[in-house]
Amino acid sequence: MGLTVVIGAGPAGLSAAYELNRKGWPVTVLEADPAQVGGLSRTAVYQGYRFDIGGHRFFSKSPEIEALWTEILGAEMQVCQRLSRILYQGVFFDYPIRPFDVFAKLGPIFTTLCLLSYLKARLFPRPKLVSFEDWVIDQFGERLYRTFFKTYTEKVWGIPCSQISADWAAQRIKGLSMASLIRKTLFPKGEGVIKTLIDRFRYPRLGPGQMWERIQTLLAEAGQPVQLDRKVIQIHWDKGGIHRVQARSQQGERFGVMGQHFISTMPLRSLVRSLVPAAPDPVREAAEQLRYRDFLTVVLVVDEPNLFPDNWIYIHDPSVRVGRIQNFKNWSRDMVPNPEVTCLGLEYFCSVADPFWQLSQAELLTLAETELRQLGLLKKAHILDGTVIRAPKAYPVYDHGYQTHIQIIRAFLEEVLPNLQLAGRNGMHRYNNQDHAMMTGLLAARNILAGERRYDLWRVNQDAEYLEEGDPSAALAGGRAVPQVIGQSG
Ligand SMILES: Cc1cc2nc3c(=O)[nH]c(=O)nc-3n(C[C@H](O)[C@H](O)[C@H](O)COP(=O)(O)OP(=O)(O)OC[C@H]3O[C@@H](n4cnc5c(N)ncnc54)[C@H](O)[C@@H]3O)c2cc1C
Questions:
Q1: What is the domain-level CATH number for residue 310?
Q2: Which residues form the Amine oxidase domain (predicted)?
Q3: What's the whole-number average pLDDT of the chain?
């Protein structure tokens, strides 16, 4: 029953620690953040206002994960009704889109143009559907593509739709076409559940961080508190595997931690950089090829109790840079301390290398207010306060060759570091949700409890289901679909 050292106190690391702790095993969690657990799923707090990094819906196809959420938070897990619409040229459209809603709001002229452009796409189909743009135009016609698909996709991924491979559209919006939308509108009960539609989800009363803070408390009560402000900077290994990690606090103090088993949820690229002695050149080169997309939220407190009823709004207007706007009070009333005001999160998808990321807090607050006014969402309300939350490495990028890079890194780690397991989103470089991160953490812990590698964590699919050996879908286990640039097979 040797000590397990877990790197990172996000959903994956805390789930691993929770499982080990409840079986009475010793565990130490090292977390880089000086104040908070939860990682990308934390709840940030500013002047009593609570908000997510993004908006974190809790839903899973895994009954075990759903049950675990209930076990940890009980009645604090609320059910939230989803309302999220698209804002385009000053008009709110239902999301998922419904043809009658679209046509009623766009008026007869635009409707006629949309139908003509749809007919054109049907009568003169593109010979080959190479890009995302080709695929959507083929299904919906050019007018609807420009209105509902192009701008938001380009804001999120930073890639023109004409350069995104069509496969992504086929996976991501599977089951959705003009014909299926019309069928669903006319015969709502006859249509199956379309992949993109989930109208209810669970959400902790105080935001997603409440889940992770509760596990932090349980670990502390069991005498195994999470060690905050301990960023792992070196991982020392030799013939037998890892024997010690070195962590550093923000003040520069150093702490050595010995262990028998190690679970890492830190970004895979950083893990390879931390190895002492260094990994062989091909492994380090593969790690350096891994890339991330970053994300920042501008939080604005507004002196108006009910600005709009949505949980979030997709901003398809190309004249503003904001991609999505969260209204945290509509996720849970208790996210704001004062019912007379509203707390919005304006989400900007970007890269730390962009000049945009370098803008000061004051510049970002001004930009966000200007864009809100331009969109007509503020009306006569005033901004009372605001802050900016930056989330680097929010999305692991699946670019050309990323799978090959991961294979090279995995092969090396599995051969020389048998007492290390990789878990979680950036830990495995997988663009997946909390439930997936949790399942990989739980299974990593169970491997340690069992004293053998009973579970291959790479067989957990995006729905947090474990695919047994022999299951043909195991070959596809892994990440949610993300856009691929044309000509790159990934
Ligand atoms: C905008 C956005 C919206 C999302 N929406 C949803 C949603 O609606 N539903 C959902 O289920 N999921 C959602 N997710 C995904 C969810 O946030 C992740 O799946 C989950 O947080 C991954 O957990 P993790 O533990 O693997 O990693 P993380 O949450 O990234 O946690 C890793 C932890 O490791 C720490 N760490 C990193 N390096 C070191 C180091 N060197 N030493 C020590 N500690 C270190 C970090 O500080 C962090 O606390 C969303 C994500 C984003 C970015």
A1: 3.90.660.20
A2: 12-449
A3: 90
